[in-house]
């Protein structure tokens, strides 16, 4: 199983428009962050988690010529506004299987109404095959276990992926992880988790919270993602505990 961090930034990306802070003006490429997304490759299959407005750039950067499925954590702009850019894959391979929770589908049908209404159907629209997530399922040769996390007043889907040997979890956009979901996150080889900034935030984990969850869960390795410009790569990396690192765009982890 190969994990690629397609994007590791918060909703505005880094550099942020109009900002001249240390991180936004950094020359370190690891401080340049597109919006959050994940790619998992297993054998010859390729799975995407979340599809931001930076999806086209991410696919070109990684030279991806085919994807087999898409999972969506929730319907916020920085996680879904790249959906139209699946069309080049549709042209070659037909409709793309898309998996999301029932509540996320309700919102997606409003935001992307033109995909679902027959009067808008035409050759230039994204083609998807919708699947509602309500229990663990198998896709691309991986066993996927969804679990809820709290994002302010809303709910986001976290995912645990297993190939029968290695265990990976992806948890983005949350400020609380319920106890039952924490139980789904034990025994991980890799945890990829939200860490927006140092100060508390009403809808995201801040650094102290994130590190506390990591200390409790004790994964073999942890990567921090959905990072805002308050966190500078070089400065933050000097202070993180062993086994914890900031992710960066394009980072690849091979779990054999």
Tally of helical segments: 8
- CATH class term: Alpha Beta
CATH architecture: 4-Layer Sandwich
Helix content: 10-25%
Name the beta content range.
25-35%
Distance N terminus to C terminus? Answer: 6 Å
Rg from alpha-carbon coordinates: 17 Å
Reported for the largest beta sheet, the result is: 7 strands, mixed
CATH superfamily: Ribonuclease Z/Hydroxyacylglutathione hydrolase-like
Could you describe the 3D structure shown?
It contains eight helices and 14 strands. 42% of the residues are buried. The mean pLDDT is 97. The chain is globular and about 55 Å long. It is 21% helix and 29% strand. The chain has 256 residues and is of the alpha/beta class. It has helices spanning 55-62, 77-80, 87-93, 102-111, 113-116, 179-183, 207-217, 233-237; strands at residues 2-7, 37-42, 45-49, 69-71, 96-101, 128-133, 137-139, 142-151, 154-162, 167-171, 190-194, 222-225, 244-246, 252-254. It has a seven-stranded mixed beta sheet with strand order 6-5-4-3-2-1-14. A seven-stranded mixed beta sheet has the order 7-8-9-10-11-12-13. It has one domain: Ribonuclease Z/Hydroxyacylglutathione hydrolase-like (Metallo-beta-lactamase, Chain A).
